Amino acid sequence: MSHAMVTCRVCDLAYVDRPPSAEELAESYHSADYDSAREAEDAADAYAEAIEPVLKKLKSRGSALEIGTGTAAFLERLKHAGFKELVGIEPSTSAIAAAPEHRKAWIREGVFEGNDFPPDSFDLICCFMTLEHVHDPGSLVAAAHRLLRPGGVFVGVTHDRRGVLNRMLGKRSPIVDVEHMQLFSAQSSRELLERNGYCDVAAKSFWNRYRLSYWLRLVPMGRSIKDPLTAAIRVTPLDAFRIPMNVGNTISWGFKR
After folding, report:
1. What's the rounded Cα separation, in Å, for the pair 11 and 184?
2. Which of 19, 78, 121, 226 lies 20 to 30 Å from 89, alpha-carbon distance?
3. Do 175 and 183 form a contact (C-beta atoms < 8 A)?
4. Global pTM value
5. What is the DSSP code string of 152-206?
6. How far apart are CA 75 and CA 108, in angstroms?
7. 3 state SS of 41
8. Where do the structural domains in the chain lie, given as residue ranges?
9. Which Pfam families match (predicted)?
10. Mean pLDDT of 173-194
């Protein structure tokens, strides 16, 4: 199940040309269930490793904002990396409820609005696996640019529709999802930032590490087989191990001059 998408021949973005309204999207995420708390911790570890070379270029680690923070697992990693002020925006009440108590003070419930913060407020703004879901990613990264201090950086993580595995699976790839309003490639991720005023823009693929039960959830297989198999694996020692795999995810970044 997915919305019909078209592809831009200039920037290589695949996008829904007749999307639901921004209000409909906001309401759907506000009321959505959340069952990925354990996977969020694994994802945060992968993001922290992938972003480390970018953080080394920052002159200051004063404040950080994460758009689509979920349970604020990645904000926890930023705290350990030395950031002093942490803010996360999350529309899902279920995700916030699943966050550990000490993280809830960092989270603001709602949809990201650039006018909620004064310009030049943050040294780092992150948006992981969220740009595919928003109504207008261009407006989001433009607003983030205004909120960054000079020398600050925006970092995004998106699926790469041009990744080998996603090309092999085609419409059976889990990235073809009814919730995704657009699907990026490395090219369109870079152009998104370059067209909105960022400099020193770059993008690269990276590896995720998840438990076997989570990888199995993504396999295009009938539920009658997949669900009992996943449940069985979860109660075995095998599921304690995190398996590294490059499944076609891209991390992209750009700095404010």
Report:
1. 9
2. 19
3. yes
4. 0.91
5. EEEEEEEE-TTSHHHHHHGGGSTTS-TT-SEE--HHHHHHHHHTTT-EEEEEEEE
6. 13
7. helix
8. 12-255
9. Methyltransf_23 (PF13489)
10. 94
Alpha carbon distance 19, 156 (integer Å): 22
Contact between 103 and 75 under an 8 Å Cβ cutoff? The reply is yes
Give the integer Cα–Cα distance in Å for 49 and 46: 5
- For 111-160, write each residue's pLDDT tens digit: 999 999 999 999 999 999 999 999 899 999 999 999 999 999 999 999 99
Strand 85-90 with 107-109, pairing:
parallel
Fold of 12-255: Rossmann fold (3.40.50)
Dihedral sign from CA coordinates of 107, 139, 16, 128: negative
Element containing residue 40 per DSSP (H, E): helix 37-55
Poorest-pLDDT segment among 44-48, 112-116, 159-163, 214-218: 214-218
- Asked if residues 186 and 252 have their Cβ atoms less than 8 Å apart, the reply is yes
Residue 217 CB: number of other CB atoms within 10 A? 17
Q: What is the pLDDT of residue 130?
A: 94
CA–CA dist 155, 138 (Å, integer): 14
Least confident piece of the model among 10-14, 24-28, 252-256: 24-28
Quote the CA–CA distance of 172 and 180 in Å, as a whole number.
Answer: 14
Tell me 214's DSSP state. H
CA angle 113, 185, 226 (to 5 degrees): 90
The yes-or-no verdict on residue 181 having pLDDT over 80 is yes
